[in-house]
Specification:
The protein contains ten helices and no strands. It is mainly alpha-helical.
Length: 226
């Protein structure tokens, strides 16, 4: 099935048969296109018609899979943020043998890598966080709560081990870390204009990760600063 051909629907009232590998691939193309469009134009500024036009996908094919824009938006977020959370959860599961601080440091590096790999996911989160409403409520309950639970769990483990100060709540520290990780990557176009550097390159991304870890865990002052 090509991206430009509408699949045949089954008889009225009959359950749709299991999707083929080609149909699943076509659906994923639509979800990636929708996620990118929502990240740039927001929910209000995006439409199924311009998603189809920008990414050269058949509008009829989009409507075959998704009855409304709201349904498409939710599916795109399930696809994009779901992948991110699964990746980060796997990262934590693979670090069980390390101490609490080492797990947190490794997690921060992986988080920064994902920010660079999947910027559209985080742009949608930032956009939807600007105002309250049903989309933010849905996004919070379905994805942000699990995402922040990963962060606070790591911070609380390090606090319980006596490695990180407990005077600041874990959720506050988690947002400080997430903000330090995100802002540099999110400023790609500004950094190109102001400094002429592309922060999305692997070299600068890794330099950023090292800088975040050094400042967060060691501070900015040198020993000579007194």
């Amino acid at each position: 099935m090509s991206a430009g051909r509408t699949p045949r629907s089954g008889a009225r009232g009959r359950a749709r048969p299991a999707a083929s590998a080609e149909e699943r691939a076509g659906r994923q193309i639509i979800l990636e296109a929708a996620l990118k469009t929502f990240s740039v134009h927001g929910f209000s500024g995006a439409s199924i018609a311009n998603i189809a036009r920008i990414h050269r996908v058949s509008p009829a094919l989009i409507h075959y899979y998704f009855k409304t824009k709201d349904e498409l938006w939710r599916a795109a977020l399930d696809h994009g943020i779901g992948d991110v959370i699964r990746d980060l959860a796997t990262t934590i599961n693979d670090l069980q043998e390390l101490d609490a601080v080492s797990r947190l440091k490794f997690f921060i590096r992986r988080y920064i890598a994902i920010l660079s790999e999947r910027p559209e996911v985080f742009r949608v989160i930032i956009r939807e966080s600007e105002s309250s409403g049903p989309r933010l409520t849905w996004l919070t309950r379905r994805h942000l709560n699990p995402l922040y639970a990963l962060w606070t769990g790591l911070v609380e483990a390090a606090q319980a081990a006596g490695k990180i100060k407990s005077m600041v709540p874990s959720y506050h520290l988690s947002l400080i870390i997430a903000g330090a990780s995100y802002q540099y990557i999110a400023s790609r176009m500004r950094m190109l204009e102001v400094y002429g550097i592309d922060v999305s390159t692997k070299e600068l991304r890794e330099q950023h990760a090292s800088a975040v870890l050094d400042v967060l865990f060691c501070g900015m002052l040198t020993s000579s600063a007194g």
